[in-house]
Specification:
Its EC number is 2.7.13.3. It catalyses: ATP + protein L-histidine = ADP + protein N-phospho-L-histidine. It is found in: Membrane. Pfam families: HAMP, HATPase_c, HisKA. This is histidine kinase. With about 500 residues, this protein is α+β, with helices and mostly antiparallel strands. It folds into three domains: about 160 residues, PAS domain (Beta-Lactamase); about 120 residues; about 160 residues, Heat Shock Protein 90 (2-Layer Sandwich), CATH 3.30.565.10. Helices cover about 60% and strands about 15% of the residues. It has nine helices and twelve strands. The strands form three sheets. The protein has a five-stranded antiparallel sheet, sandwiched between helices. It has a five-stranded mixed sheet with strand order 7-9-10-12-11, covered by helices on one side. It is rod-shaped and about 190 Å long. It binds adenosine-5'-triphosphate and magnesium ion. Adenosine-5'-triphosphate (ATP) binds next to helix 8 and helix 9.
Length: about 500
């Protein structure tokens, strides 16, 4: 028996059995007292009646002073079933005939008789004679020579024995009734206990934070309604928790995007003033270096050094230009853009590079794809950055595999375009896949990598309501998958 059922049994027992037991005790005590009182009263009335008859018989005997006849009369009357004892008292209040039961009667009896004689009023009460308590009735006799009072007693024992018997019967009936209601309480707790225990257990689990709890209960005593109420409550709590978690996640995501956008803005400002400050001196150094490198009057090694200076200046200019490019806010308008055209433009632009680096281009573009509503240059930045990264990841040659198709994996969703750019380079380890999207994270510092390409890609794609994933390419390298909502659902 589980704890909840035990508790239920205890409560039901208290609720059912206590009033029954109390009811029996109270009504028993009250009714037995009343019964005893009325029995005693009727005994007293019987005594009074008996005395009236006895007095009539005693008058002539007393008048003649016939003590022996008086003794015989009291013994005869005392032999009757309902009479305990009989006694005659004379005009002075002294006993002159007593039945054997009253021979050793206490003085209290004589006192009662003497008082009745002197006051001329009847009285009744109880006195103890031997081990027995008896009911006494004293009747004064006026103006009768030789007779002052007649006393008659009656045993109280039979009445008390009747009351004791009634008490035992009452106790037995009360016990049986208490047993019956206890059995009913135990039966109810058995029938309901399991379901009640389930409900209590479910509420305990909800209180501990488990909102997946679902309870079932039968319609007995409306328990199914309680179960439904608990289920509705946990469901609505779970929904509220879901909403709170979703709102929190959205808030965190928004904060991250804002930090990202602010960082890009700072990059743009720094790059702008940087380009402005070093632009002129850099151009001067570059110009003079080129001129000197082309000066045939200078010795070969010196010209080579100028060549190096010019090349490094070019690199610095490229880096600054790139920082400007990526951070400059787009000026174009948002229009429906054919992503397939963007992909073709980028591959056409990179074709000479691919040839030099012996990278095999495998392009697969699906027919009749829906457009994407976006700023064209921003989409160009996405494709370009992914392709350049793929090229840079394969310095010794390899494969650039680009595929563009409709993503119809989930028919429930709005149509999306899936662009995949894969290479046969070293790939990106799992634990680095979120890091590569961080601003300024780059493993290509020596070749002028700024760590801005992928953050820009992520930013543009997110702005269009899409997402970027990294996976393993079939050739072993990295595979970047970009999912973008198509025109009908684009933001
Ligand atoms: N196709 C790829 N294969 C392997 N690693 C890659 C690939 N693409 C990106 N990475 C890793 O992610 C890093 C960040 O790329 P990201 O394009 O942001 O910057 P970058 O290429 O280093 O510099 P930038 O693009 O600004 O010139 C790279 O330095 C490289 O370590
Ligand atoms: Mg890059």
């Amino acid at each position: 028996m589980n704890l909840a059922r035990k508790r239920l049994t205890r409560k039901l027992l208290a609720i059912f059995a206590t009033p029954v037991v109390l009811g029996f005790v109270l009504t028993g005590v009250v009714s037995l007292r009343t019964i005893r009182t009325s029995l005693v009263e009727s005994s007293e009335r019987a005594l009074a009646d008996n005395i009236a008859t006895l007095r009539t018989a005693a008058l002539p005997i007393a008048a003649k002073g016939q003590t022996e006849e008086a003794a015989a009369l009291v013994e005869r009357v005392a032999d009757e079933e309902t009479v305990h004892g009989v006694a005659f008292y004379d005009e002075r209040g002294a006993p002159f005939a007593r039945s054997s039961a009253l021979v050793n009667a206490p003085s209290a009896l004589d006192v009662m008789a003497a008082r009745a004689v002197s006051l001329g009023a009847s009285s009744h009460g109880t006195v103890r004679v031997g081990d027995e308590e008896v009911l006494v009735h004293v009747e004064p006799v006026r103006d009768a020579p030789g007779l002052g009072a007649v006393v008659m007693t009656r045993e109280l024992g039979p009445i008390d024995r009747m009351i004791d018997l009634a008490l035992i019967r009452l106790a037995l009936t009360g016990g049986a009734a208490a047993l019956c209601v206890s059995l009913i309480a135990i039966w109810i707790s058995r029938v309901l206990g399991r379901e009640w225990g389930n409900l209590v257990h479910a509420v305990d689990r909800v209180a501990a934070g488990d909102l997946d709890v679902r309870v079932e209960a039968s319609p007995r005593l409306e328990l199914d309604r309680v179960a439904r109420a608990i289920n509705d409550m946990t469901r609505s709590l779970a929904e509220t928790r879901e909403k709170l978690l979703a709102a929190e996640a959205e808030r965190t995501e928004l904060a991250a995007r804002m930090r990202h956008a602010q960082a890009l803005a700072v990059v743009g400002q720094v790059a702008g003033s940087f380009a402005h400050e070093i632009g002129s001196p850099l151009n001067t150094i570059l110009g003079w270096s080129r001129l000197s490198a082309a000066d045939e009057d200078l010795p070969g090694p010196v010209r080579a050094q100028f060549e190096t200076i010019a090349a490094q200046c070019e690199r610095i200019r490229r880096i600054v230009q790139r920082m400007l490019d990526v951070s400059r806010p787009p000026t174009d308008h948002v229009v429906p853009v054919e992503l397939a055209d963007v992909v073709r433009d980028v591959t056409a632009f990179l074709a000479p590079d691919l040839r030099v680096r012996r990278i095999d281009l495998r392009l697969r573009v699906a027919e009749r794809l829906p457009p994407i509503v976006a700023v064209r240059d921003r989409l160009l930045q996405v494709v370009m950055n992914l392709c350049i990264n793929a090229i840079q990841a394969q310095p010794g040659g390899g494969t650039l595999r680009i595929s563009l198709a409709l993503d119809d994996a989930d028919p429930e969703r709005e149509p999306r375009l899936r662009l995949e750019v894969a290479d046969a380079g070293p790939g990106i380890p799992e634990d680095k896949r979120s890091q590569v999207f961080e601003l300024f994270y780059s493993t290509k510092v020596e070749i002028g990598g700024t760590g801005l390409g992928l953050p820009i890609v992520a930013d543009v794609v997110r702005d269009l309501g899409g997402r970027v994933e990294i996976a393993d390419a079939p050739e072993g390298g990295a595979l970047f998958r970009v999912l973008l909502p198509a025109a009908s659902s684009a933001r």
